[in-house]
Amino acid sequence: MFLTSLLLLLITPKLQVTTEAEAAQMRAEVTALVAASRAKRCPRPSLWGAPQIEGDSGAAILNIIEGPEAGACLRQAREIKAMSALDPTLRARVEARCVALPRLIHEATRYAEGCSPYLLGRRKLGRLAKHVVLSKAARVMAEAEARAGRTEAAMTLLLEQIQINQDLMRGGAPLLLPMLATAGDALLLDALEPLLTNEAPKRVGEALGVLLAHDPHFSESLQADGLHVFYEDILPSGSGASLGLSLGADIPDDITLVWLAMKEMRQAYARACEATRSLEDCVAGLKALEARPGEVKPAGWRMWLKLATGGKEAVKRQAIELLKAITSPGLSRYVERFSARVARLEALRARLTTP
Predict the structure, then answer these.
(1) Mean pLDDT of 170-196
(2) Mean pLDDT of the chain
């Protein structure tokens, strides 16, 4: 999200305005954040109230996305361009290659915990195209169940895939994961909605309630996204780039400045979008943050530092403010889309609980 803008900043002239103490504090804070992320646990209940397997769903989900058992399935499903115009021949090929997918999805949802495998310091993002492809494949298999008259099995599969999408963003994954979940869930809910009649089993409504009660709040990823970029892409090779904990002592001044600016942005995001606030409040808070005047273009960074005056502390403060202006994206629109996804789940749940 911030990568292009931040990388432009690492060509600054070597005007030393940060202190060794600030660089040391940065190393300590990043190390502590990574350690806490690696130790984090994300308990969440079963959709069906069934006994759960001890442990986290992350490895089972990665096995679906990256392992050999579902590889042919996802490669075939990648050919789907639009679910609304799915060619019958391609649909048949996906169904033939994805026979094992419902079982793999069910097994992944049986775990008692569901942290994203992409939390800070655990795993680099890489290419994430398969995440939406997985939702497409799950929908194809659910629609096959529905056509065969197994409506409850179809609804079960769709709801379990929604929980997998939740797990992929749970605990503070980068913003790309809730964005992918929003896209994937839209495909799944399009298939689920026509199946939710008055004859739908009570357990389906209860499962929707579980999904809503344990849906990750957008603030988790909002707080985490900049950390991921900083750790994986901004720190020098051998530190964040290798997903290790050993940060070298020779941290360039501009990297420390980026860290200080990012800390202040994270604090601003925390105030604008607290986990206890509604998503609608988060949208309003972020829009107010985005309305700051005085946008500064990255191209002016190098010349600005040459001209900046007022002593090191004044230059550092101006540099941090400049970095914040450059690296502050318009995030409110993503929260709006995420909020619409939640509202849709709530509407389906209400449909089943309203007399």
Answers:
(1) 94
(2) 83
What was the pLDDT predicted at 259? 86
Residue 313 φ then ψ, to 5°: -65, -40
Please check whether residue 339 lies inside any domain of the structure.
Answer: no
Q: Which residue type, as a one-letter code, is found at position 137?
A: A
Same-domain status, 201 and 76: yes
User: What percent of the chain lies above the pLDDT cut of 90?
Assistant: 49
Q: State the Cα–Cα distance between residues 78 and 314, nearest whole angstrom.
A: 53
Asked whether residue 278 falls in the same domain as residue 204, the answer is no
Cβ neighbours, 10 Å, residue 299: 9
Q: 247 exposed, middle or buried (CB, 10 Å; 0-12, 13-18, 19+)? A: buried
* Cβ neighbours of residue 3 closer than 8 Å, sequence gap 6 or more: 229, 233
| The token pair that represents 264 in the structure block | 């202040």
Please indicate, yes or no, whether residues 113 and 156 belong to a single structural domain of this protein: yes
